[in-house]
Amino acid sequence: MTTTAAPTTELAGPVPGDQSLPYGGFATRTIALAIDAVVVDGVALLVSVSVGLALNLLHVGKTATVVAAAVGGVAFVLWLLGYFVTFWTTTGQTPGCRVMGVRVLDDRTGRAPLRMRQALVRIVGCIVSTLMLCAGFLLILVDDRRRGLHDRMARTVVVYTSKEDDPGPGRRPAGRPS
Amino acid sequence: MIRVTIRTSLYAGRLVLRPVAAVVGVGVRIEREMLIAVGDAMGRNALSALDAVLATHYAEDAVDRVLAAPLAERALDRALSGPLIEALARDIVRYAVVERVAEAVLSGDTLDRLMLLAFQGPGAERIVVAALESPAAERAIAAALESPALEGLVAQALDDPGLERIVARAVGSPGGERILARVVDSRLTDAAVTRLLESEDLWHMVDEIAGSPAVTEAITQQSLGFADQMAGEVRERSRKVDARLERVARHLLRRRDRGDEAGPTLPEPDTT
After folding, report:
1. Of B239, B250, B255, which is closest to A160 when you measure between CB atoms?
2. Quick check: helix, strand or coil at residue A104?
3. Residue B263 pLDDT
4. Bigger pLDDT: B240 vs B76
5. For the residues A91-106, what does the mean pLDDT come to?
6. What is the DSSP letter of A111?
7. Distance between CA atoms of B168 and B174, rounded to whole angstroms?
8. Does B254 touch chain A (CB under 8 A)?
9. Residue A92 DSSP symbol
10. B23: DSSP letter
């Protein structure tokens, strides 16, 4: 969950273990996740409705419909993974994080973006946290650095971003190649 | 004895001449008053005659004919092409004519009366329309606009701080407000606005402006600015909720508050 498109070298992050940093809290991260869910599910719904209408016009058989549903399920999982992994490993912020002003950083380097492996582990951690009746997410409320289970598994932290970190429309961080 | 006789004679002479001088004085006064009365009566009659003439349709016809006459056109052409304009401009600036006239007009209610007459009179609109539609006026305006003298005059007038003072005073005065209200309420303005709204060119211009990249970009920027403002507000509130939820959770679990409860300085959310 994160935002700004800034190069790795410019995202000065926290010193690992630094508790004085402005770590992102539960409500902010929940809203950011909700925004991402709206984006992901909205796109998936649009695509699935379009494909469903097309298949209905073509009068395909029952088997083909089952196969299409299976393909759709796989496509949705890939879309979900691709969405979060792409944003976490490029900008360190999903659109939801960008709106809410938080960014995911590597806990060891204190910088964004995450590595591919970290991003995948974080997603798995999110699924595990959800399966535990969201208890993994509730850890954010009591952890000294506001880390959930998925953050601990992937060794990541979420921090608030400032105005300087978030170049708005037409604004670009100094030295960033155009 | 002789002296006494002379004095007596002079005294007697004065006594005799007094009534004569009084009669002559009365005659002179009567003559003067009669002259004044006759002059006043003649002036009033002349003004009444002028009013009567101006109230007839002949006066309007006369103005129309004068404006439409080739002589007026030639006279105007000559005046505009000659050195008269330059000389006039120099003198106007040198003697601060505009400033003085404006001061005088603005200080009294003369301008009010003139504007009232101009905009409420039945012939005013016809005269203005006739003047504007005449080819002579068109050529005269074109010649005046192409004249370097006019350009210099306008530039000089715009640079003059006196003009700025006059405009500021005129705009801010109650008389200016009244005049503006009358101009806006006049039939001439209604007719002009109606004609303007019926013009295809106006709507073409509006379309061009509305579709211009500058306007589109401005609208986009405003929309983005509003979205940013909303997002900033949500961020700010969610951060407060973060801290509150954490306090409650830690209180329930009887854990001490985070070291940063008092706060690490949170980055200011972008509310712009």
Report:
1. B239
2. strand
3. 45
4. B240
5. 93
6. -
7. 12
8. no
9. S
10. H
